[in-house]
Amino acid sequence: MNPERDHSKTVYLLLLALQASGAFFFVWKELPEFRQLAINPGEQLRYNPYSDFTTIVTVFVMQLAYWYRLLRLPIPFQGSSQILNHILLFAGRLSFIFGGALFSVAFFRHLPEMDQDANVLLMARRGVLLFGAVFALFCFALELERLGHAFGGGQRNLSEPSRTPNDRL
């Protein structure tokens, strides 16, 4: 056993868990507000400083974990498992669905219906938070895809069938 490699795996998994926890927490926390945006387009949601604070902290932790891993820690897993490859690539794409839906509802349905009486400063602050949160979800999706590619066992054309029995699993 290589203690340095084990430490690298542990740190990587901890950073990935921070990103995943942040993504799940953000979706869980924002789902009621998402519903309100979808049901009542143009109606400004109540200001809740606690919600803004938790969003800022969540995005900050997700980004800290993502950029630390990207700049300082290579993915410590390599292998040839098409099942893990596909599951992780699928999870990466799936993890960004809420971010894309939230962005679409906010900018293409909600904003065009806003009244002139809306608090512009609050809208701008929420817009910045939304961009930060969607970007953090995007980075998490990229991380899952990178991990999936690490289990891809090298690059090959996905339109070609698997050539060896080991390549199938």
Model description:
It is built from six helices and no strands. It is 73% helix and 0% strand. It has one domain. The protein has helices at 3-39, 49-72, 82-95, 97-110, 120-150, 165-168. The protein has 169 residues and is mainly α.
SSE arrangement, N to C: HHHHHH
Overall, the morphology is elongated
- List low-confidence stretches: 156-162
Query: Roughly how many Å apart are the termini?
Result: 25 Å
Mean pLDDT: 83
Sheet having the most strands: none
Provide the structure class: mainly alpha
Radius of gyration: 20 Å
Task: Tell me the domain tally.
Answer: 1
Number of helices: 6
Estimate what percentage of residues fall within beta strands.
under 5%
| DSSP E strands, number | 0
State the helicity in percent bands: over 70%
What's the arrangement of secondary structure elements?
Elements (H helix, E strand, L loop, with lengths): L2 H37 L9 H24 L9 H14 L1 H14 L9 H31 L14 H4 L1
Helix pairs in contact: 1-2, 1-4, 1-5, 2-5, 3-5, 4-5
